[in-house]
Design a protein that fits this description.
By secondary structure, this protein is mainly α. Helix content is 72%, strand content 3%. It contains 10 helices and 2 strands; from the N terminus they run αααββααααααα. The chain has a two-stranded antiparallel sheet. A hairpin with a 3-residue loop joins β1 and β2. α4 packs antiparallel against α10, α5 runs antiparallel to α9 and α6 crosses α8. The chain is globular and about 50 Å long. The N terminus and C terminus are likely disordered. This is HTH gntR-type domain-containing protein. InterPro entries: GntR_C, TF_FadR/GntR_C, Tscrpt_reg_HTH_GntR, WH-like_DNA-bd_sf, WH_DNA-bd_sf. It comes from Pandoraea norimbergensis. Keywords: DNA-binding, Transcription, Transcription regulation. Pfam families: FCD, GntR.
């Protein structure tokens, strides 16, 4: 009986730790992706422990996971901070992202299963619905889920894992591509979103008919949309055209591409 009681207590403790780590992970991820926490910001561990009502252990578990996804940097003997978004780092990220996006989308066209295709199509529709509702967070999350599903359909678990990490690291760039405050006009934002919507449908069709070359081309074009948006944003920010509170005022996003 004693052993059973101890086992039950251990299981309960593990559940609490897991719940605390998951809660901390989601809260930090949301704040980083929404840019509520700026690139380069120090992370106040004690404040988060107090806010969430958890110990430092699950918080550190969450931060290790976020560090693996490229959203925070763990500093030896100095705590942690939100990963920077300096220009050389953005260039390297977009270069790696394009290569992995092209590879996973090409392979998905060749290897996808009927179930993969159903999942991808459902997520294309979900993104369109979030766009119709003008739900920025829904579009960001929906875009992540859509491309994650394409990555999972590539039939290579190693490549899919690398792509998944880059997709998560890319979430802050997705914020630039879809939020209202980072465009000079509503017309410019809508034109950008229209192209994203069109390419989602075109990628879906290339995967449906197993056209690997077309899927590869579209994946490259899709990455170039992100690169173009970052370049335009930085150019406008340098001229002081962006509103206060956007990435123009965030440490760690400086220079030009």
């Amino acid at each position: 009986m004693r052993k059973k009681a101890e086992a039950a207590q251990d299981a309960a403790t593990k559940h609490v730790k897991g719940s605390g780590a998951s809660k901390a992970y989601q809260l930090l991820r949301d704040r980083i992706v929404s840019l509520e926490m700026h690139p380069g910001d120090d992370i106040d561990e004690q404040a988060l422990v107090d806010e969430l009502g958890i110990s430092r252990t699950p918080l550190r578990e969450a931060m290790i996971r976020l560090a693996a996804e490229g959203l925070i940097s763990l500093l030896p003997n100095r705590g942690a901070r939100v990963s920077s978004m300096d220009i050389p780092q953005l260039q390297e990220h977009l270069e790696a992202f394009e290569l992995t996006q092209r590879a996973t989308t090409r392979l998905a066209a060749l290897r996808r299963t009927p179930a993969d295709l159903v999942r991808i199509e459902a997520l294309v529709v979900a993104f369109e619905q979030a766009h119709e509702k003008e739900d920025v967070n829904g579009m960001i999350d929906g875009n992540w889920e859509l491309h994650l599903a394409i990555g999972n359909a590539c039939g290579n678990r190693v490549l899919a894992k690398i792509y998944a990490n880059l997709l998560t690291e890319n979430l802050r760039i997705a914020r630039l591509a879809m939020s209202y405050e980072t465009f000079p006009t509503q017309e410019a934002r809508q034109a950008h979103l229209n192209r994203i919507l069109e390419e989602h449908r075109e990628i879906l069709e290339a995967i449906r008919v197993r056209d690997a070359e077309r899927a590869d081309q579209l994946a490259a074009s899709h990455t170039n949309l992100a690169r173009k948006r970052v370049t335009e944003y930085i150019s406008l920010s340098a001229l002081g055209s962006m509103a206060v509170g956007t990435l123009a005022n965030v440490p760690g996003l400086t220079g030009g591409i």
